[in-house]
Amino acid sequence: MKRIERLTSRQLERNRETDKKYQRKKRLDNKGWKSQQNLEYRIKNKEKVEAQRIINYNINNGKIKRMPCESCNSILAQAHHDNYSKPLDVRWLCASHHKLFHLSVSVVELQI
Known about the structure:
About 60% of the residues lie in helices and about 10% in strands. It contains five helices and two strands. Strands 1-2 form a two-stranded antiparallel sheet. Strand 1 (about 75-80) and strand 2 form a beta hairpin. The termini are far apart.
């Protein structure tokens, strides 16, 4: 039997309240940390962020239609940019194939 299964509902509620207080304090103590990290990423990757913004804008306005994954035809596909200077030229990959694509590209780059 798992420990959580042995706790009473009162103990579970007390744990939730304690965790809630801890998370609230942690957020207040580290205020701005994530936004600073995001800002640094956006500055470092301007071209990438701009390409993502353009493709999302066009998807939301109906100018571009999401397509299924090129590998498995999953309807939950993500836009992958081979070249960020061509933001509307994307290939559609599901999360699994998108990750595999980046891993295979990384391996090829290491071998060169």
